Amino acid sequence: MLMDRLRTRTPTREQLAANRYLGWLAPFFGHPKLWHWSRRGVALGVAIGVFFGLLIPIAQIPLSAAAAVVLRANVPATAANSP
Fold this sequence. Notes:
Largest sheet: none
Structural class: mainly alpha
Radius of gyration: 12 Å
Number of helices: 5
Shape: globular
Distance between the termini: 25 Å
Oligomer: single chain
């Protein structure tokens, strides 16, 4: 029930690839580990999202998504946690 609610509220691969600020990351979004809901990936994604959300006042989501791709974290959790 909780996982279903999380999956409906997080952005999909297509939504992130269609975003005009994240379009340059679309070729890297194909890796399955970036979308797998594992404990390590989600925790790292949340940490990256919070870090960039508090540190950088502009372009938080593109920078946090790029960091998630590099660190192989969960991209939806990262994008959802960046304000």
